[in-house]
């Protein structure tokens, strides 16, 4: 089990990558910095990628450099333009601009030429062994590997065979190109790693031009170098790849990009790998990549997350050198922090029970003013109709209430928010024993602004029966029941951990003005939470509750 970070991380001055950059700038090693964000277009971006985007783009902005967007499209089998488009949309939405849009496939010719160069230097060879043979001759951490029988081919033969691989003379798996390093190297990745494999598949950009494709380790550092990336930032699991990253650059004698690793983002109750997210989509456990329960950027956007909240989250999480799991409530906290300041307020009743004000004349309507956002009391106002028949939340009434319950109970008073104090005088139950109608009287002297303010312990929200609109609310909750999804045994089907109540659809009654809201961001349903109008189904998606503990 990994350590769970519960709260905001403490204030820090510089993170370790900033320290490196500042030292590099101070020493004159670099005049300015260039970073890149290198997604593989094989799925939609998730919140972990957002962390990496904020880091890469953020560093360049802070130090006056720039960031390239580079698609790591070296595996034609899993990649697609659909993903390229969504990735670009998501980065823009997060608020960042890339200096250049590049593709690893733009560099295939250059990478090929460099492979020839390494062959000529005696540092690469064509191997005829099968994938299985290559695997079994690699050795183990404690035992050296075995040299391939093809390791000492002549330069001429290697060049001829590699050219034939490119020309399509061989089937997949017949031959590979390997770097000639050291089959006894303590780092297994340095034991003659693969540089190229044969894949007879159309590529979404290069079509059928190529049937040999570079491996990640051969492509990534060289692409960085071509773009003169100064600080190539990736996640911790790549630290063992760094010697190989450096080996290619040194032996090719090209621009010395450097790789730095930070801890990948993990979140409680969340899976993050694109491969697993794709399974959720394919198994119809969710509606699609943009299902509001998904940790994808498009899912979070549809849920009601703002770019500001995600950027704040990335900053709060910071840059760690050790893997950990961040509590999902930190992400929710960041959203509330942003929306509290910016969102419009409305009252909505989600689990209605009818309330009748006995001493209010039928047909009488009185309007009350309320701020659109109490954080800006002098800002715009809205008007809310007060009528004889109302809805309140059924949770806001209790027949036999404990002492500390300050909402509505028999013979007791509450204020209907922004309006009068009412007193419960009676209530009606159905055969099942549920309260179906509450009778109250209102106190005309309690009108806000009309006399001295009278306080009561409880204030509840409400909606007029005749002057409200009906909407659909999509009440989202965590997709998984297990806090540490990263620790469930490999091979175990995580559908066993799906939360059956991750979506509950209900109807709610709201102030009619909500339907005209054009703020473009989530609104607050007072006392309940933040809700965002779903761009697809028109319902209101619960983005987050107002507090951790508030449950509908
Ligand atoms: P996944 O395993 O989820 O598919 P990936 O690392 O294969 O992710 P890429 O498209 O290759 O996805 O990643 C693009 C960039 O985003 C890389 O630099 C990668 O290190 C970074 N990244 C991916 N996942 C995370 C994460 N959870 N936290 C931080 N950075 C991440
Ligand atoms: Mg990947």
Structural overview:
With 552 residues, this protein is an alpha/beta fold. It has helices spanning 16-26, 47-62, 81-94, 108-120, 131-136, 155-167, 216-226, 242-252, 274-282, 297-303, 307-317, 328-342; strands at 4-5, 34-37, 66-71, 100-103, 124-127, 176-179, 194-198, 212-214, 231-235, 258-262, 325-326, 345-346, 348-349, 352-357, 366-371, 381-386, 389-393, 413-416, 421-429, 435-443, 459-460, 463-464, 469-476, 503-510, 523-525, 529-533, 540-545. The longest helix is centred in the first third of the chain and has 16 residues, at 47-62. The chain is elongated, with a radius of gyration of 31 Å. The two termini are 31 Å apart. The relative contact order is 0.11. It binds adenosine-5'-triphosphate and magnesium ion.
Nutshell version of this structure?
The chain has helices at 16-26, 47-62, 81-94, 108-120, 131-136, 155-167, 216-226, 242-252, 274-282, 297-303, 307-317, 328-342; strands at residues 4-5, 34-37, 66-71, 100-103, 124-127, 176-179, 194-198, 212-214, 231-235, 258-262, 325-326, 345-346, 348-349, 352-357, 366-371, 381-386, 389-393, 413-416, 421-429, 435-443, 459-460, 463-464, 469-476, 503-510, 523-525, 529-533, 540-545.
